[in-house]
User: What shape does this take?
Amino acid sequence: MRKLIECVPNFSEGRDHGVIDAITAPIEAVDGVRLLDIDPGQATNRTVVTFVGSPDEVIEAAVRSISRATELIDMSKHAGEHPRFGATDVCPLVPVSGITMEETVEYAHELARRLADEVGLSIYCYENAALVPERRNLAAVRAGEYEGLATRLEDPAWQPDFGPATFNPRSGATAVGARNFLVAYNINLNTTSTRRANAIAFDVRERGRKKRSGHPLTGEVALDENGEEIWIPGSLERVKAIGWFIEEYGVAQISMNLTDIEATPVHVAFDEVSKRAEERGIRVTGSELVGLIPLGAVLEAGRHYLRKQHRSIGVSDTELIKIAVKSLGLDELGPFDPQTKIIEYAIDDGPRLIDLSVRRFAEETASESVAPGGGSVAANVGALGAALGTMVANISSHKRGWDERWEEFSDWAEQGKTCHDELLALIDADTEAFNEIMAAFRLSDGTDAEAAARTKAIESATRRAIEIPLRVMEVSLASMDVIGAMAEIGLPASTSDAGVGALCARTAVMGAYLNVMTNVRSLTDEAAAADYLTRGREMQDAATARETEILAAVQQRIDAT
Assistant: This one.
């Protein structure tokens, strides 16, 4: 898997688009880096930029962009709603794929060193990259903001981790970190009151609010036996939140950083804020995503709201995204484009076979090219079979009179969707495996070392070209559990659809096994070849037997109607 990291610098300029363009242009000039999002804010006077790529290229792009920001942004003239202490306020690195957090921390330290040495910035390392435990929390690092930075730099305990310990009124200081995926998320309220928005923010944020005697906002702060302020924790874990008024929208918002979306998913934050707002006579009208969000977080939100409606969650990703967007009101302040706001879609290189129309897929298969071939077609047929089983489960879940069974059918639909999603991915994987074999055969074998490397590459690619169709067999066979159940208990009028699904699944298993038998002949490891063939034969026999059972059940139900 290719090593990818995301970089999310926050620049203290959100109004001058000429400056913003000049800052982001160096990012696009670095090969191997993709600029995903530029999100300027008028009220905050801050722009959140998101780009992704291989680690070395991302570090280079970050240095170039931050260097340009240092030249163009004068912090002594900056004003905005968001906490900040530098021209480039923060610059976190986020592991995306093929890389550990530990490795990402090393890259964060490299970035910090380069920004100090090459740009002359004062750098504090935070989150997982923190070199001092007290600096792990960004709020602690940025305490006092830009206005208090000169005084703080005089404190020996707050010398920068890298770079000069002298105050630069133009550039301020920068926090460089390594963290897990953070979702910056704003929830819109039907009020203009910052005070009321803050009260809701204090209700939900993990830190909570200071305990007071008398009035909860203006009363005297309570102290413990050591004279320390007592805090009442909020209701949401790993959540930072404040309330503010956004003039360009004319509403107050709860501005949130969800620092661990496994601890507090987006939909949980939205529902909790809605509940707390209602208790205060305020209504949530929608929400706004700043930057990008992982696909899984959006899909889980869609499932959450479908469950609340007692509807099947085994529907397409497109439908789940649509439900999530409408339920969270992500399109209230502007269009929500999944292709640019969901990170997996934004970095998708494409084009892929699964993105072709039915006509184009058939035409591509019929062309003079040897790929896509039988392996991709087998995976496609398997995906269609699993999809038919899923379809029967979904329509059965909302049959009139079967309301109490919605969850039973939803579980089957979700199981079927898992199968057809993987089979769809295997359509392209099979063609990619074939291309890897061709590339291996094209390697030079001039020297002994080159010949050995070529032989090793061919063997590795051949194994992959066997294991992909074997996986097609496994998943297609697994889909027959869903198809079989729907043939027996699904909507009677759709029984024939389950039968067609069984025919597709068995065809996928047998077709993929033909690929296995063809490719094992090229393996030099005879024991591995024998094992592959044995596994394939067993699955083929099981699929044939299962097809017979399902078709018998289908015939019986058709005869009974």
In short: The domain at 353-560 is CATH 1.20.120.680 (Four Helix Bundle (Hemerythrin (Met), subunit A)). The chain has a mean pLDDT of 94. The CA atoms of residues 198 and 243 lie 4 Å apart. Residues 448-489 form the longest helix (42 residues).
